[in-house]
Amino acid sequence: xxxxxxxxxxxxxxxxxxxxxxxxxxxxxxxxxxxxxxxxxxxxxxxxxxxxxxxxxxxxxxxxxxxxxxxxxxxxxxxxxxxxxxxxxxxxxxxxxxxxxxxxxxxxxxxxxxxxxxxxxxxxxxxxxxxxxxxxxxxxx
Length: 141
What we know:
Blueprint lengths: L1 E3 L8 E3 L5 H20 L23 E5 L5 E3 L2 E3 L4 H9 L7 E5 L5 H13 L5 E3 L9
Parallel strand pairs: 3-6, 6-7
Antiparallel strand pairs: 1-2, 3-4, 4-5
């Protein structure tokens, strides 16, 4: 309640206006919360990823390339390998050295889910050092 000071009386009169300041404060806080949360709730965002322009790291003497071709078959080095036998083929090629980096190449036509499945198979086989291979791109589009 609000009181009004004035007049010659000793008693304070009641003011019959609504104090809207707390209401405005609450509305402004809610507005800020929704302004911050709305962009985070966006799920479908079209993305056109740029080409990598990072400097190339030095290649090892004998790199181990795993290639996912457009027809979703796998090649380890130059020889084809079945998906089920990927772990054994990697162990044979590396001498069971699971610290060796595996360079993963994939055709542009390979769906993202298939590439992730191959990466999961590499992780299940114990090969955690995976490098993705790409072409050098233009430094800014």
